[in-house]
Amino acid sequence: MTVLYILVPIAIALVITAIWIFNWAVNNGQYDDLDSPAHSILFDDDDPAHLAAQKREGDAERDDSDQDR
Amino acid sequence: MSHPTPCYHCGEPVPTGAPWHVTILGEQRHMCCPGCQAVAQAICSAGLESYYRHRTETSANPEAMPRALQDELELYDREDVQQRFAQRDGEEHQAILLVEGISCAACGWLIERHLRAQPGVTDVALNMGNQRLSLRWKDNQTRLSGLLKSLRKIGYAAHPYEPDKASEQIAAENRRYLRRLGLAGLLFMQVMMATMALSEEFNQDVTERMADLLRWASLLMTTPVVFYSCAPFFQGAWRDLRNRRLSMDVSVSLAIGGAYLAGIYATLIGSGEVYFDSVTMFALFLLAGRYLERRARQRTVESTAKLVNLLPPSALRVEADGSTQRIMLEELRCGDVVEVKPGESIPADGTIISGQSSVDESALSGEYLPIAKAAGDQVTAGTLNVEGPLRLRIDALGEQTRLSAIVRLLERAQSDKPRLGRLADDVAQYFLLTVLLAAVVVGGAWWWAADLHTAFWIVLAMLVATCPCALSLATPTALTTATGSLHKLGLLITRGHVLEGLPQIQTVILDKTGTLTEGRMTLEQILPFPGVDADQALRWAQMLESHSEHPIARAFGRSSEQAERCSNEPGQGLDGRCDGQPLRIGKPAFAMALTGLPEPERPAGDGQWLLLAGADGPLCWFALNDRLRSDAHELIDGLKARGLEIVLLSGDHQRVVDRVARELGIDQAIGNATPDDKLAFVQARQSAGEKVLMLGDGVNDVPVLASADISIAMGNASDLAKTNADAVLLGSHLSALLQAMAIARKTRAIMIENLGWATLYNLAVLPLAAFGFVTPALAALGMSLSSLLVVLNALRLTRIRPPVAAQHHSAQPEPSA
């Protein structure tokens, strides 16, 4: 159990790091708007870039199967 | 006309034969006005058509938005003006804009997508919660005025946001609360692990040195929680003790402070129980409850923050040489001459020196029709110039205006506002007295039976075991969840006492204009004379009215064609040529002057009747009225069914007020009431011991809103009304109020259940603790279980289905084929 003499300080060091990161996130405004990101993800399907990427993928697959080319 | 097609864009009824339509999502959709048509076209041509697929609410009508003039927008490009709200970062500028017209999440998508496509814009982020848009742009590639204009094209009004002290302070405080909560949560987990190893129940074979290490480690980690996270409890307790009151904060501080001090003692002597896990857990639970409560409040404060300004941001000053210059409102001085164009708000109190127009004073007086004004008449800041350009000499600015007088009346009303008692604080008093008394008795008994040492540890265990965790969570959790549910239903609660107070209300006072009615003119009836086609008459009327900014003209909707040689006689009507023939629309006498014939008899029926006449005789009657909201009947019936007394209190003419009261079945109707009258009426009711709820919207209602026990403002109310109301009806669905009353009753029931359960738990654990059966592990277990139960019980309030919203969604404008 003597390993506790090392583990307890490590735990304390970890929690201090966690608190520091949390404070950074709060001060950086990460928690200011919890609603909009939840909605915006729903519309990403219609993102022109996303659609274009999907189309490219589809084209690529067709190109692969298209032996005449 | 009874069931007109709703406009695909904004949901307003489309006038018969309206020529406006846009092809959206592969179908032709009808629009109610050229404004909607232009916006819908702009959205489609920007390739953002799928906005219409995603939206869950109809969009805002672009014509209902405050107007912004090109030169006013350009003022925002001025370096000295921009300094107040924008930050410079190299060649990039950054500013926060307040956006109006956001109705659902899809609007956010539309705005962000549209702005990102503009050249020079580097970053756009819209916060849906408070409708603030943070924008970064390169000044050498685009101008702010251009961006504001492009937003307007897709139907949103935006203006720079200058942070006000109050909401900044709340935001900063909430961040501090979140840091407190995070600290308590992270440390709680560590402290829990360390102290669990010490508990006998877990039978960890720790050596004495190891136990010492764990005690010191948990003391080290508990200290920041007590001194940083729990600071608000101690401050609150100190404040309440100085006021000679026992509150929840006092009992919380006693439990935390007592357990922490005893823990230090136990650590120092190296034996005894440490309750550090209970201390940190307690702090975590309570902070979580309070943080949620604060966040709900911050959201409401932000979303009601300055959205619609009564005063225009700028004014057009007339210089001595006759030239005009646009200046910011702050630069205006008494004695200046300003020009106010039709459709603009009047910036300050003044006297008209030239021009003739009518002025919409509905916000200040409740009168829904504009009042005709000519040279020599006084006009008031914050009212709207409707018809013709006016030049006025400024008499009073800022603090001296009539608008400010109402604000002062409001401050007086606020200080007189009665406070409703809060359930939790009443319970806390008895609870604390009982626990303290029990502690003295039990401590004395153990001291007498055993020794001081045993008595100390027993009393400590008792204080921790009975610590009012569940009790102090009982009401905030119920209130927070109910606030969230109500928000979904469309009622935003800005002050805490609304839910507790709603079941106690006896009298409901309603305003008329803008509250029970929609607050604007709508076309109700068209009565053509024999031989005249109604559609043709409406088309002519629209052609004529499209020259006017009068609210009556807006009711006709605008036409793509315009009458020629149109002239406007303020207060009388319009004169012009349509399809080559002279026509007049307006007051019967004015219209018939064209024909020289006697006036035809006015049709029976309420409202404002306008006559369209040609050179050969009268053509058509148009009936206009300030239409009742569709759910006004439902509200009145619901309130009556609950046995509440209903009073209609309005600044409009008694005749009009009586008519509305008759139609809705309200027995008491008081008209011609000035803001002072209204305040006096409500205060008289209150001093008679009644609990009064006020529902209103205008600036003239503000003092009453501030004074009533519970006040609710309409969603489209003036700012001043919204910030001084205890709750805001978003989307102005009146029936949400009835829902709120039902939820408030249920919330009260749940709060009482929670308090009952928490008291029961404490009563049950008290004897156990008194006989020394409660160990730290058991105390922690009991505390978390009782708190969990209370929270789960409160969560039942989220399972309320929103029938109003459901109805609203199904009533979405689908093209009626």
UniProtKB/TrEMBL annotation, chain A:
Keyword annotations of the record: Membrane, Transmembrane, Transmembrane helix
UniProt-listed InterPro entries: Cyt_oxidase_maturation_cbb3
Cited Pfam families: FixS
Superkingdom of the source species: Bacteria
TM annotation in the entry: 6-26
Name under which the protein is recorded: Cytochrome oxidase maturation protein, cbb3-type
Annotated organism of origin: Halopseudomonas aestusnigri
Automatic annotation (TrEMBL), chain B:
Family: Belongs to the cation transport ATPase (P-type) (TC 3.A.3) family. Type IB subfamily.
InterPro entries assigned to the protein according to its UniProt record, in alphabetical order: ATPase-cat-bd (IPR021993), ATPase_P-typ_cyto_dom_N (IPR023299), ATPase_P-typ_P_site (IPR018303), ATPase_P-typ_TM_dom_sf (IPR023298), ATPase_P-typ_transduc_dom_A_sf (IPR008250), ATPase_P-type_domA (IPR059000), HAD-like_sf (IPR036412), HAD_sf (IPR023214)
Membrane spanning stretches: 181-198, 213-234, 246-268, 274-292, 427-449, 455-479, 755-771, 777-795
Subcellular location: Cell membrane
GO CC entries: plasma membrane
Membrane-topology annotation of the record: Multi-pass membrane protein
CDD domains linked: HMA (cd00371), P-type_ATPase_HM (cd02079)
Source organism of the structure: Halopseudomonas aestusnigri
PANTHER family named among the record's database cross-references: ATP7, ISOFORM B, CATION-TRANSPORTING P-TYPE ATPASE-RELATED
One Pfam family from the record: ATPase-cat_bd
Lineage, uppermost ranks: Bacteria, Pseudomonadati, Pseudomonadota, Gammaproteobacteria, Pseudomonadales
Any one GO biological process: copper ion homeostasis
SUPFAM superfamilies registered for this protein in UniProt: Calcium ATPase, transduction domain A, Calcium ATPase, transmembrane domain M, HAD-like, HMA, heavy metal-associated domain
Keywords: ATP-binding, Cell membrane, Ion transport, Magnesium, Membrane, Metal-binding, Nucleotide-binding, Phosphoprotein, Translocase, Transmembrane, Transmembrane helix, Transport
Domain called HMA: residue spans: 93-159
NCBIfam families named among the record's database cross-references: ATPase-IB1_Cu, ATPase-IB_hvy, ATPase_P-type
Protein name: Cu2+-exporting ATPase
One of the record's GO molecular function terms: ATP hydrolysis activity
Major localization listed first in the record, in broad terms: membrane
